[in-house]
Amino acid sequence: MTTPANDFNGLKVLGLGDNVVDRYLNTGKMYPGGNALNFAVYAKMLGADAAFLGTFGTDAAGRHVRATLEALSVPTALCRIVEGENGHADVRVVDGNREFVFSNKGGVARENPFVPAQADLEHLASFALVHTSCYSHLNPHLAALKTASRLISYDFSYRWQVDDLIGPVAPRLDFAALSAGDVGRERAISVLRETVAHGCDLAVATLGPEGAVAYNGQDFVSVAPKPTQVVDTLGAGDAFITATLLSLVAGGWARGRRLSAGMILAAMERGSEFAAEICRIEGAFGHAAPMPVETPV
What we know:
Keywords: Kinase, Transferase
Strand content: 15-25%
Number of strands: 14
CATH class: Alpha Beta
Distance between the termini: 51 Å
Oligomer: single chain
Family: Belongs to the carbohydrate kinase PfkB family.
Protein name: Sugar/nucleoside kinase (Ribokinase family)
GO molecular function, one term: kinase activity
Order of helices and strands: EEEHEHEEEHHEHEHEHEEEHHE
Radius of gyration: 18 Å
Number of helices: 9
Shape: globular
CATH topology: UDP-N-acetylmuramoyl-L-alanine:D-glutamate ligase
Helix content: 25-40%
């Protein structure tokens, strides 16, 4: 039930939902990103048969994201293209640290929420795992998405701290990821217990420089970050989640199966290794483009 670190060939996975460009105000460059899109690209980098499904704007940002996915051979079947601004987030680097200073909260993807049609649900059924996020505006459809998919994972980011998400969302998930680097290990363990108690099979909290901790309803499993030369931490959490998930699915994880502590640890170790690799890349995964000249810097 184990798999070599990069042996994800033939594993079909889907990133469903958000895509953005991260616009670096200091350098005038924009990079493709977003939780669901990063998952699809990182899974492709790891050798999986990965695809993306979401909504693009028609501006320069949307065109750049679409062109990047095409260059990376990440399929975008059934994606929507809507007139208007693609999602973007403005980032400023201060003393080596990233500060998010503005977001249009998904742009056209927020203004025209993705409503899964029957064709979308049938498409989901062909993938071993579907990954989405709190920024994908899909919460009302999670029950249908879970029914249509073999496994569904969800990134709460830090929004679980400010929105009432755990109770409504966790029962509709197989896997949950929560950002908890600013609340400490004790609070993270509490929210992991809460998430699993609501019906999610496995929950993982990322703790920044303290690594990550997972809970399967029985065991708490911790992993430390791998030392690396940090160029940019953008996307590191998504990279950790992606490699962890691929390792679990390739190892035989299926809905309703309790994962052993050893299997979880091995997957999280692979996640930490891949996150360290991504920290050595500018942006979430490179592919910079100049910010449009009309964008204020």
